[in-house]
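debug: dumping io for the single-chain case to check the tokenizer round-trip. Nothing else runs in this session.
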Amino acid sequence: MKSLLTAFVALILVFLQGSSQCSAASREMGRNKTKISGKLFGNPFHPEKVVLDNGLLEIRQGGDFLPERNITVFLHIEKGRIPEGEEIIVNAIGKSEHNLTLVLATIPTIPPSPTRHEMISTGYKMKLKFGKETKKGFLPGSISLLVPGKMDTQISGNFVALVKGFRIIDGQVDLAADSTDTLLAAAELYMRSKNPGKVVKTKEDIDSIVTLAAPYGGPQWGYAHAVYSVDGKDSERKFMFDKKGKKWNVKKELKLTEIYQAHPNTVPRAGDSESLHALLEYAVALKGESDANRKYPGKVLQKASINAGYNDIVGLAKTEFAVEAVGGTRLSKRYLFYLDKGNWKFRREMSATEPMDMNKEWSEWLKQKR
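debug: decoded output
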């Protein structure tokens, strides 16, 4: 049960990241075609949107990011499979267990109403039916659900689910789908092209990310650090991806001693104020990667993180950098940067406990420049 709860939390995080990828037209299509009503925990429930993502069917009401009320059904289907034309009938009332799990949740935006999560695998009736995709990415269906007793939940109606995440079409990976699994599949294709006649499989996904909405106006990009099996021999690799032609492709390969933040597909350039944060993260990444390679020469770097905040009025930025080096060691640094002609430049390293007074730091900086 704990693993299912973890999966649900992961679903929420994925939705937070991916909600911005959908165009306004796509969101409105999903909302206009969803006609489900009923009650959740005894309160009126009128969801506007249904999402199917990697076997999780989420029925949502309210909230652009985190829903105020939602019902999630764990379908337990094969990864990447879309349940077109399938019907699921469950009568789990009075039974001790069932292979389908539901999560009922309310997350009020106005306190003091309490947040409530309930995960159940028995004590409910459900009839869930899916049609055929009328348009790629939109799956029609209907649902009738009854959870009697203390849960006091009952819904029914038709919907059009927005299909997201990894998917397989006619036995082939859909390289247009925004998913880290898609990136790993694209990397496998690349590895096979470089190793003709050899069997290539993904063995371990160490760290991967796919951008669903490009920040600062740049194109979508992805990153994967994984171990591949090539004719039974392990090959650890890092790849950057782009989405040219609406399909994910390997853009370039990184060294194992490099971090993706320091080697983006598109290097940020000084420009308007919206680029300042991208420029700062890039500057921190270059400095952090350099320090990590000096401290751990030849070591594989992984799971780098950057936390950066700045004051563009005084032109100073306080940043934090951390990265793991294979072998269990971890490097953590705090840097101070200053803004010079639209670019961030390294000023000095800060101690782990050093407080930061931006105004004082800026006054001292001005004295030094004079």
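debug: round-trip ok. The chain is about 20% helix and 40% strand.
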